[in-house]
Design brief:
It contains eight helices and eleven strands. The chain is of the alpha/beta class. It has a single domain, classed as NAD(P)-binding Rossmann-like Domain (Rossmann fold). Helix 1 crosses helix 7, helix 3 runs parallel beside helix 5 and helix 7 crosses helix 8. The protein starts with about 55 loop residues before the first strand and ends in a 5-residue tail after the last helix. InterPro entries: ComplexI_NDUFA9_subunit, NAD(P)-bd_dom, NAD(P)-bd_dom_sf. This is NAD(P)-binding domain-containing protein.
Length: about 290
């Protein structure tokens, strides 16, 4: 049987009944009128529908003027995204051309009103917020601040949220209890609020060139060779107690690349990505 696809011209008098009959030699055609079985129906050519391109992705980077955050902003701009950043100090102090292309917001993640304003029109968020200090302070900046951001983004209808967390370091976690408890609390909130669009990156030591005032500290001098050595020593990660100490460092550009891809690629799987996953994804071509 031959299939004929077309738009049917309906009779004005009533809603037609459609019957399918054989179109073989000497047979009958599909008809919209039970009283005119043998008459072929009229066919019009299909119309061309012009679908507008998808809207521009707008990314909000929390902590965009920090070491990791600044690399995330730059990577996102290189990918053609519209980028804004919210941080306590506002505009980045870096005198680089890309910084002028970022919309800078000054505010505190512990203030929900400022955060909601910065989230207007945002399609995805990457949080690079974290810090050290007393246990109570570390829990607040790593946990509470990020939880506030996750909840506000969820309420605003943001599609994807990427959180730069941290790898476990075994016994070292007890020395920085507030830091890790805050990180894990934020992770739990993210996986609850963004079950299908929440991605957690858990790098270990992140190396690259850090700007400290007017000085540039090239951490890659020892970070890069150490990464290559520890990549080959992956089985050591399984050793009890001390295994996590063999987690390889990772380049800040790799972290930024994977974070931006996770925030914008709808097929990037949700969940936790460890340092080995970050290294693997960073070597793949972006979609």
């Amino acid at each position: 049987m031959r299939t004929i696809v077309s738009r049917l011209i309906r009779h004005k008098s009533s809603i037609p009944q459609i019957r399918f009959v054989s179109a073989s030699s000497g047979g009958r055609y599909l008809s919209t009128d039970s009283n005119k079985i043998d008459e072929p129906f009229n066919v019009e050519e299909a119309e061309t529908v012009h679908v507008p391109p998808p809207p521009t992705e707008k990314l909000l980077v929390l902590g965009g003027n920090g070491f990791v955050g600044s690399h995330v902003c730059k990577e996102a701009l290189d990918r053609g995204l519209s980028v804004s950043s919210l941080s306590r100090s506002g505009r980045s102090s870096l005198q680089e051309s890309w910084a002028a292309r970022v919309t800078w917001h000054q505010g505190n993640l512990l203030s929900s009103d400022l955060l909601k304003d910065a989230l207007d029109g945002v399609t995805s968020v990457i949080s690079c917020v974290g810090g050290f200090g007393s246990n109570s302070y570390m829990y607040k900046i790593n946990g509470t601040a990020n939880i506030n951001a996750i909840r506000a983004a969820s309420e605003k209808g943001v599609k994807r949220f990427v959180y730069i967390s941290a790898a476990d370091f075994g016994l070292a976690n007890y020395l920085l209890r507030g830091y890790y408890e805050g990180k894990r609390a934020a992770e739990t909130e993210l996986l609850t609020r963004f079950a299908y669009g929440g991605i957690i990156l858990r790098p270990g030591f992140i190396y690259g060139t850090r700007n400290v005032g007017s000085m540039k500290i090239p951490l890659g001098v020892f970070g890069s060779p150490l990464e290559m050595v520890l990549q080959q020593a992956k089985p050591l990660n399984q050793l009890p107690l001390v295994g996590p100490l063999f987690t390889p460092p990772v380049n800040v550009e790799s972290v930024a690349k994977v974070a931006v891809r996770a925030a914008t690629d709808p097929v990037f799987p949700p969940g936790i990505v460890d340092v080995h996953g970050i290294q693997r994804y960073s070597q793949q071509k972006s979609r």
